Structures are given as structure tokens and as C-alpha cells.
Amino acid sequence: MHESLDSEQIKALHAVKREETVTLGDKRLARITRLRLIGFNSRQYPWWDVSYCYGQLKDGTEVRVQLYAGRIGRNWKADMIALAKEAGVFARGLGLLDEDVVSRLYG
User: Fold this and answer.
1) Structure pTM?
2) Which of 20, 27, 37, 84 could link 48 by a cystine bridge, Cβ 3.0 to 4.6 Å?
């Protein structure tokens, strides 16, 4: 498992009350603050599921971000780029590819 935050930072992240959910293409979305991927490692077909995605609006409001990703393949970064492109946004610009933002848990 690769975790870029310590346990106190993770507790603080989950303690924030997020009352609104937005889509990835929402023009108010400034950045992704956390993306959690849960992985199933299979030699035949490895894939990832999105556990949760948090973001921040341009006005500073913390929100949940709905990603309609389904299963993400071995090359998760390419799948995130395609998902962002479909939503009309830039994955790198939102921080969707940043190693400090993305947390991957292998199951």
C-alpha cells in the first residue's frame, strides 16, 4: 500500500463535512484533494475501483466528486485522463494525476 498522508492527516480529511456532490465536469471545481483507488491485482485483468473522490470548489467549499468511472484498468492514469477529457476538463490541472492526491490500496 502506498499512502502519502499520515494517519492524522487522513482523520482530518475525513472529518470535513462535505454536504455537496459535484461531477468532474462542474465548472466550479478548482481541484481534486483526494482520490482513493481500491485495486484488485490479477495477472489476467488487474483493475481499480474508485472508493471516494474529494475536491474543492473555487470558493473553497469542500465537496465530494462523483466519478462515473466503473472499473479502471491497469493504466489508471490513462483512464483518468480519458475520464477528464470526456468531462471537458484537464486531469493534470485538477490534480487528478498527482501522487500526493491519489491513494492506492491493493486488495
Assistant:
1) 0.79
2) 37
Report the pLDDT value the prediction gives residue 44, as an integer from 0 to 100: 63
Residue 42: how many other CB atoms lie within 10 Å: 9
Residue written as grid cell 481534486: 32
DSSP for 61-76, please give it. Answer: -EEEEE----SB-S-H
Extents of the domains making up the chain: 7-106
**What's the pLDDT score for residue 107?**
67
Q: Do β-strands 21-23 and 62-66 pair in parallel, antiparallel, or remain unpaired? A: parallel
* Contacts with 31 (C-beta within 8 Å, 6 or more apart), sequence order: 55, 56, 94, 95
